[in-house]
Amino acid sequence: MPSGLFMALADRLDRRVGWHRLPRLLGLLTLIGLRSRLRQRNLHDTGLAEPDPDLLERARDPEAAATRTLDGTLNDLDSPTMGRIGARFGRNVPVEETFPEPEPAILQPSPRAVSMGLLTRETFLPATTLNVLAAAWLQFEVHDWFSHGKDEAENPWEVALAADDPWHERPMRIARTRRDPTGDDDPATPPTYATADSHWWDGSQIYGSDPAFANAVRAHEDGKLRLDDDGLLPRDLERVVDISGVAGNFWIGLGLLHTLFAREHNAICDRLRAEHPTWPDGRLYDTARLVNAALMAKIHTVEWTPAVISHPTTRYAMHANWWGLVGERLGRRIGRLGSGEVLSGIPGSPTDHHGVPYSLTEEFVAVYRMHPLIPDDYTFRAVADDRVLEERTFPELGALQTRGRLEEIGVANALYSFGVAHPGAITLHNYPRSLQRLERPDGTVLDLAATDVLRIRERGVPRYNRFRELFRLAPARSFDDLTDDPGWAREIEQVYGGDLDSVDLMVGLYGEPKPKGFGFSDTAFRVFILMASRRLKSDRFFTRDYTPETYTRTGLDWINESTMTTVLLRHYPELEPALRGVDNAFAPWKRVI
Fold first, then answer.
1. What span, in angstroms and rounded, lies between the C-alpha atoms of 459 and 95?
2. Is 80 exceeded by the pLDDT of residue 95?
3. Whole-angstrom distance, CA of residue 133 vs CA of residue 130
4. Based on the domain organization, do 7 and 118 belong to the same domain?
5. Given 252, 257, 317, 556, which is the most exposed site by the fewest CB atoms within 10 A?
6. Beta-carbon contacts of residue 218 (< 8 Å; ≥ 6 apart)
7. How far apart are CA 436 and CA 449, in angstroms?
């Protein structure tokens, strides 16, 4: 079928019926058609820095191009600055739609009023098909994908407060996002923002983006990362970490996953050393990093995502993203069928940016604001017999407390405790209270819910109705269209003063009725359809260079044979009774009683 006709038919089926109401095969084909249309219409460039001559020369050196770089350069060898640290965030909506609203409209309604009136968790609403490890995993991955860097200290936003609001300062001050240093002040051009991490899916949350940190985490022997004698991350990393920045968001959930995948890196090094005893430290490290990063990408694609959007069609579609329609079992037996991504999956297919230089986008950042997943209260249990070890609140598990808590509880016990507990549902009235008054290690206090709302407005992401229109979805025609809860509809109407088109994107995403099995909205899923594939398809280390020559045959076999469950059991075998018979490590584990 001609591609234009195929995309048109997919679009029509989705509009008339909805992809999630179609039989699985027809629904899958509809999603493939929608992805093609989104690639055609919802990728927009905000500008790419020109590489300097030295970088272009390095791109021609096979040795320099064989591994991931710390700053994200040299992924695309023809455009070696693409996706690097400092590169601009792109857009999934036309650039002319991304002007932020002028003051005072951008502050209306007050983000604090939205936080208090629509988001506050009054009773914990659990996501019963998931465990808390799924919540920690998302933040673990987000810390690899995107960061806008430290906020600007000058000229903060001033947010109006209600007369009875107990906030400690009036007005509430929220620092502005750091502006792109390569941008200009032309009022005819929307502002742009730059990433403080690379745009690539490269494991930077473990390996670092800063040379001092990257050096400090390495053992500089056998390619390995440093761990203390107790198996935890080195204590002295604190000297190279700026807790006033993103590192200040660290907590025990991130501590568990950083520890787990540092140990996984070292296990990969042991396997590579056994296969290649003459390799130097640097080559072992670089290859193990490639393997570990690809394994995390695979786990996110075929395990975490199907757990969170557990519709029969999307479960199959995410496996097809990695393995193709041929599937894992047959694909591993017979190898690739042709070069395309549909039959044999994206890994190993040709690299393709679909006409727009690769970057993550502000819209992708916006729809991944899923803080309701985080519980406020935690019960830690012993994996041996399920007895309660201690109970803690989220503030007691922050960056400055993580090391001590893991020493008290033990990593295996903490992993088990996360595995048998539920995260919060991504919905209205379920935002963690702990994050509505978040006291960061540097002493700053913020309402993260109000900040989330304002950040989306500030960065020029359209409000909910316009956002849907730009993704060819019907806008809400009334407040009752926003949610299937009539009480919530009236609350939204009151907070927004009856102005339907001013409803914030995050509020619409949280309130929207979800497809069967979905943890987040179908509107957010439109961005996900596009960007989940793009993060793989644009990265040569997942496409043209996903080969034995780059990864080694041993490395590719390690990725193919590993799952989140095998990673957990490789390092903490005592978890086996809790994971026995559990199909997905992000679903609830068995209680050991």
1. 12
2. yes
3. 8
4. no
5. 556
6. 224, 225, 226, 285
7. 6
Angle (CA) 313 317 322, round 5°? 160
Count of structural domains, the chain: 2
Mean pLDDT throughout 204-208?
Answer: 94
Determine if the peptide bond prior to 577 is cis (ω within 30°). no
Tokens of 498: 């009856």
Looking at residue 263, its pLDDT comes to 98
- pTM of this structure: 0.95
Q: What is the average per-residue pLDDT within 451-477?
A: 97
- Please state the φ and ψ torsions of residue 125, each to the nearest 5 degrees: -105, 105
Q: Which residues pair with residue 251 across a beta bridge?
A: 398
Amino acid letter, residue 398: G
pLDDT digits (tens, 9 = 90+) for 412-436: 999 999 999 999 999 999 999 999 9
CA–CA gap between residue 286 and residue 551 (Å, rounded): 10
Tens of pLDDT along 133-145?
A: 999 999 999 998 9
Q: How far apart are CA 145 and CA 203, in angstroms?
A: 9
- CB count within 10 Å of CB 50 equals 8
Q: Mean pLDDT across the stretch 180-190?
A: 82
Residue 32 lies in a domain: yes
The tens digit of pLDDT for each residue in 52-63 reads 889 999 999 988
d(CA 583, CA 25): 23
User: Which residue range forms the structural domain that includes residue 116?
Assistant: 42-579
Report the distance separating Cα 35 and Cα 506, nearest Å: 23
Residue carrying the six token digits 């204590």: 235
Same domain? For 34 and 166 the reply is no
* Mean pLDDT of all residues in 85-90: 95
Query: Which residues have a Cβ under 8 Å from the Cβ of 109 and sit 6 or more positions away?
Result: 495, 496, 497, 502
Q: Distances from the Cα of 531 to the Cαs of 191, 227, 538, in angstroms?
A: 22, 34, 10
**Of the candidates 412, 381, 530, 508, which has an alpha carbon nearest to the alpha carbon of residue 34?**
530
- What is the residue whose two structure tokens read 């992805």? 35
Do 35 and 164 sit in the same domain of this protein? no
Give the chain's length: 593
Which residues are catalytic, by number?
368
> d(Cα 571, Cα 296) in Å, to the nearest integer?
16
Rounded Cα distance, 362 and 201, in Å: 16
544 vs 538: CA distance, rounded Å? 10
Residue 344 near residue 331 (C-beta atoms within 8 A): yes
pLDDT for residue 305 is more than 80: yes
Query: Are 114 and 160 contained in the same domain?
Result: yes
pLDDT score of 153: 80
* Shared domain check, 59 and 16: no
Is the CB of residue 223 less than 8 Å from the CB of residue 269? Answer: yes
Let me know if residue 590 belongs to a domain.
no
Q: If residue 378 lies in a helix (H) or strand (E), which one and from where to where?
A: strand 377-381
Q: Are residues 29 and 66 in the same domain?
A: no
Report which of 404, 527, 561, 509 is spatially closest to residue 114, judged by C-alpha positions: 509
Residue 473, both tokens: 């979805």
Is residue 591 assigned to a domain?
no
Residues 216, 207: Cα–Cα separation, whole Å = 10
In this prediction, residue 268 carries a pLDDT of 98
Is the pLDDT reported for residue 244 higher than 60? no
**Together in a domain, 353 and 425:** yes
123 and 35 within one domain? no
